[in-house]
Amino acid sequence: xxxxxxxxxxxxxxxxxxxxxxxxxxxxxxxxxxxxxxxxxxxxxxxxxxxxxxxxxxxxxxxxxxxxxxxxxxxxxxxxxxxxxxxxxxxxxxxxxxxxxxxxxxxxxxxxxxxxxxxxxxxxxxxxxxxxxxxxxxxxxxxxxxxxxxxxxxxxxxxxxxxxxxxxxxxxxxxxxxxxxxxxxxxxxxxxxxxxxxxxxxxxxxxxxxxxxxxxxxxxxxxxxxxxxxxxxxxxxxxxxxxxxxxxxxxxxxxxxxxxxxxxxxxxxxxxxxxxxxxxxxxxxxxxxxxxxxxxxxxxxxxxxxxxxxxxxxxxxxxxxxxxxxxxxxxxxxxxxxxxxxxxxxxxxxxxxxxxxxxxxxxxxxxxxxxxxxxxxxxxxxxxxxxxxxxxxxxxxxxxxxxxxxxxxxxxxxxxxxxxxxxxxxxxxxxxxxxxxxxxxxxxxxxx
Length: 448
Ligand code: GDP
Ligand code: GDP
Prior knowledge:
With 448 residues, the chain is an alpha/beta fold. It has 12 helices and 18 strands. It has helices at 16-24, 68-83, 99-110, 154-162, 190-200, 243-246, 251-259, 275-286, 308-319, 339-353, 359-372, 410-424, and strands at residues 5-10, 43-48, 51-57, 86-92, 115-120, 144-145, 177-183, 204-206, 215-222, 225-232, 262-268, 290-296, 328-330, 377-378, 381-382, 385-392, 397-402, 432-437. A hairpin with a 2-residue loop joins β14 and β15. The protein is globular, with a radius of gyration of 24 Å. The protein starts with a strand and ends in an 11-residue tail after the last strand. The structure holds guanosine-5'-diphosphate (2 copies).
């Protein structure tokens, strides 16, 4: 099966985020020192007992509320619940069992998903707080005592979750299939684009309604390859949300993005770029996905002249300058204009995002690049890049071993990244560069 999804659910403040970070956090360390990647994550991947799984943190469920924000958070949590294979229901020993917990339990039971009950903030080991036994009243079986802060009990918790999963058949998701998320505001033409593409291809295999009410998966094959289009129902119009829950308002887009290889960021040509557009694009960028800025409804733009597209392209490029690698394409989902070209682009950016550069040629390039433009120096000490290697793909992530991190200025990092792009045809994918310091004693033959 595909990597199972575990959702962390519970009232606000019981420690869900803390638990999420404990289960996921450390494993993301490879990208830690990359600028722009330190974001509040609500979705991540990890591994337990040799098996990969996905984890989603929900904002929190307050069952009885007139508060619009809390109601909205509840709705977002429902999306995660609908998608999950197993639910971790987190409660809090400090507040004890509350009426709200009882109601959340009822809501979870109606979902018919397997539920693992965790009682958090059991920080002291050795003694069991008598209040712990109250949690048996939820009728969800044995509660598991955990401390998200210290990590106690989290192994038992994962064991309990895994016991509900069907045995691992060892099969990864069909890796030939390119997962494409279509994201953007309501009415930009996401469904129209999917329909156009499906309509034009005579080889539709299936059109499966996704597991949620929110995303429709459409699998098809054509001369470009095998694709699964994930059509998100769109982010809601932004209504007033405060910062603490802002991150959960994009849960739906986040889940589609994380599941994808390529993100199509749809913009309405009649409307131009809005703040919400750059925001969703930012999510895809942070996730390291190959992205394409798709300006739709080009047919409806009036008074076009020969250079209109070029002028507009520059405007769009400026709005999305933080992700300059993303190609910009003008299409019409209605007339089909440039839709084939879009298919080609999807294939190409996906290939770049998954590309692997052999270490040998990478270091030959590094030698040429550093010879052409000398590395920066400070107070008589010059940056040395000993060695460059590609650590992972999707996105291509390179690790540079250097003598002193602080000498590797942003502008020189950009220079090296641009050299990688030019030399290996990686112009249309985000690239990450991780800088590691290495003592001069370790240098040896790899010194460049
Ligand atoms: P969420 O709203 O459910 O995501 O809760 P948070 O993860 O933001 O945690 C809420 C509060 O509980 C924070 O002040 C945390 O520091 C605290 N907290 C979380 N886990 C633990 C724990 O295991 N022990 C203790 N003592 N406090 C915790
Ligand atoms: P979604 O909410 O993003 O899925 O948007 P829809 O696909 O439902 O489209 C919203 C509206 O925009 C519909 O009335 C479509 O007919 C219209 N629309 C979509 N694509 C185009 C296009 O390329 N040109 C024009 N003129 N209208 C379009």
